[in-house]
Amino acid sequence: MSEITSSSAHNRQLVDWYTKIKNGNIKLPRFQRMEAWDRWRVQSFLETVIHNLPVGVTLILDVGNEEKFESRYISTAEPEVKDKITEHLLDGQQRLTSFWRALHNNYDFETYFVYFPDFDETDNNRRDEEISIYCRTRYLKNKLKYPLWADSPKDSLKRGCVPIQLFRPENIQSEIDNWIELATKHLEPTDSDPDGFKKLKEYNKFQKDLTLKITKLRETISHFNLPFLSLPSTTPKEIALQVFINMNTNSKPLSIYDIIVAEVESEMKSSLHDLQSDLSKKHPKIQQYFELDFLILATSALLQDKLPNHRGMAEMDKSILVNNWDILENCLGRMAVFMESQGIYDKNRLPTNAVLSVVASAFSKIPENGDLAGKGEILLKKYLWSSFFTYRYENSAASRAYQDYINLKRVINNEQNDKGDFYEEIDIPVLNRKLYPLADKEELLTVGWPKKVNIRARGILAISTYLGAYDFADGKQVSRENIKKREYHHIFPNALLQEANVDSSLALNCALITGKTNRNIGRKDPLIYLKERYKWADEEIVNSRLNSHIIPIKELSNGGYEGMEKEKRIDKIQSDFDSFIETRADYVLKAIDLLTGGKQITIESILQNSIELPQAIKDLKSEIESIEIQLRDLINVKLSGLSTNPFEQFVSDMTRQSTEFKIASHLKKFPGENFETYRSFRKKLNFFTLGEFKELIIKKDTWSAFEDMFKAKPNVEHRFSQLFTLRNQIAHNNELNDIMIKDGEAAIIWFKSILKNELSEKE
């Protein structure tokens, strides 16, 4: 039977804590988070001490004959001569670290003082205040630490400031006397001073008063009580760990990473902090994409077929996390290399971080060389870019990342389902175009500024960084090394578009380049503006630099606004800008189709002129558009007959969110409209896809309204699929074969027949 653990409460003065830290008797378990308090919290704790106010208890574990946990010294407190370790500090690290470091004033860019208002000679109206803690932030200039006064005893005292290291609780009287001498030396009278005797008395009194105040406060600090609870050395390791977690969770919540670090330490005798530090040194690029601790846990969770969220991380086997560390490390390293190969260099330009752990985990199933390696990376490319240009990761990102990973893995492993069929790409939800169609042109035209966290906006920007995105000024290609120097630049000048009341902050009007906006030429024709600003000399430079951002040069060079009447000028600016972003949207759509298909893209392949559609295909396109309008009208009538609010009652959460997002994006382009314009169900239906029409028709609680017309659900699904395939191929200028055309034509005839009959019955 194990011995019952009980804690006991004790008082301990800071002088005793200080001595134990100095001698190395107290250490921290390695699983504890590093020091985290900012200067405000440090200052607040020190204020509590100098005013002798009560403070919460700390928690220690008596070590006994053997340390239960791997340990480290308090920051900057490793002793030269190491004494016996007697205690592990389980709770109170931040307080004691702040106490130790402040009392040595060894922070890099903060210097702490005790402020005595009685000695303040400046005119700052603070003399009526009580003694307090003052933190002076520092900065480097020409290898000197400024402000210089913070290191000058004389100048510090003139401000009423005494450096806090003079209050550390040990025998440092000679150091104190020396500081006081330097701080007051200028007040000492000379032998030739006629009032020398009087001034000498005042000088001695001043020194005595200063010494007395320092001594009195040193006593307060030295005898300040910081109580603690003590767990006996017989406490089982797992119980000590659980007490640590409970105490920290109740006061300042631990992160899931903190808790797992503690569990790994307890179960595996391994330091996750050390493993992470080694990983960071070996693969420094990984942490450019997201916080490394999260990526470690999310990827490890997926590798164990757990959700990449707090629940999954908590449920995963910590021993597997440690034992398979080499696999995890390799996966994360390959992920960073892959992301860079796709022109994505950092988290500020990453469309969604949900993809990172999926890509990393998938690499555990993809060999590093050979044909299978190439096929695996093509599949990941399809996955990545589909994640950027569908609504898959707008919500519930962790669960969707998990589902995509599980099916990616099945496809890569060539697994079979319960029916004996091999898993295919369409089984990966994000690659299923019926479930998650790619962004269309209308959506791209309304996507907002990519500096904000916006998946589609950053996806558009990522296409240009994938293509190289040469800087307008220095002509350098974008890279990991220079991307942080790039800025978000309005291609069509912001001032020019504001004049015409056009929203300029659209993703399609953005280029990532260096330099700040030159407002002096901000209202000039776009191409003239760019040439003057970047001093482009010849057409080759113009073409190469603009083309690398898939910027349509012809549409950018329309111009001719100078000297025009105001109304005509505004109309032309609006017309030219519409033409510009329409053409750029076409380029982006072409890139999306290729990238989501796992193909390489080049500037030439994107910018080459689109092939004019044959008249027969144009006619099909027109008929599909007519069917879509009629379906909107039909669904509006039928569902409005079933409910006063069909949008809320019948439309799925995902479709509602998608619709509202599209409307919000649309309104950015047309500031004269507002949400009231799209309050009606019929107006909202304008933003639905064919797939969303189908789901509304065959839905269990709406099918009764459509069954007489469409007869059987399988027919509806089949015909919608045919129509969707044809529409999608035409819309994206993809190659059409005879089967697609014939199937599409059959679907058109079927829909026209049903919709015509419905119209005849109404008449």
Please summarize what this structure is.
This is DUF262 domain-containing protein. With 763 residues, the chain is an alpha+beta fold.
Strand content is: 5-15%
Strand order of the largest sheet: 1-11-3-5-2-4
Mean pLDDT over the residues: 87
- The end-to-end distance, rounded to whole angstroms, is 88 Å
C-alpha Rg (nearest Å):
35 Å
Number of helices: 32
How many extended strands?
13
Query: In terms of per-residue confidence, which ranges show pLDDT below 50 for 5 or more consecutive residues?
Result: none
Oligomer: single chain
SS-derived structural category: alpha+beta
Query: What would you call the shape?
Result: globular
Helix content: 40-55%
Commentary on this structure:
- The chain is of the alpha+beta class.
- The strands form four sheets. Strands 1-11-3-5-2-4 form a six-stranded mixed sheet.
- The relative contact order is 0.05.
Any chance you could write out the topology, listing elements then pairs?
Blueprint: E1 8-10, H1 14-23, E2 26-29, H2 39-50, E3 58-62, E4 71-72, E5 87-91, H3 93-102, E6 110-120, E7 132-137, E8 139-141, E9 144-146, H4 153-158, E10 159-163, H5 173-184, H6 196-222, E11 228-231, H7 237-251, H8 256-268, H9 272-282, H10 292-303, H11 310-315, H12 318-323, H13 325-341, H14 354-362, H15 371-388, H16 397-412, H17 441-444, H18 455-466, E12 487-490, H19 494-499, E13 510-513, H20 526-534, H21 539-547, H22 553-556, H23 566-596, H24 603-607, H25 615-640, H26 646-650, H27 653-669, H28 681-685, H29 690-698, H30 703-710, H31 713-731, H32 738-762
Helix pairs in contact: 5-6, 7-8, 10-13, 10-14, 13-14, 14-16, 25-29, 25-32, 29-31, 31-32
Domain GmrSD restriction endonucleases N-terminal: 16-263
Organism: Sediminicola arcticus
Pfam families: GmrSD_N
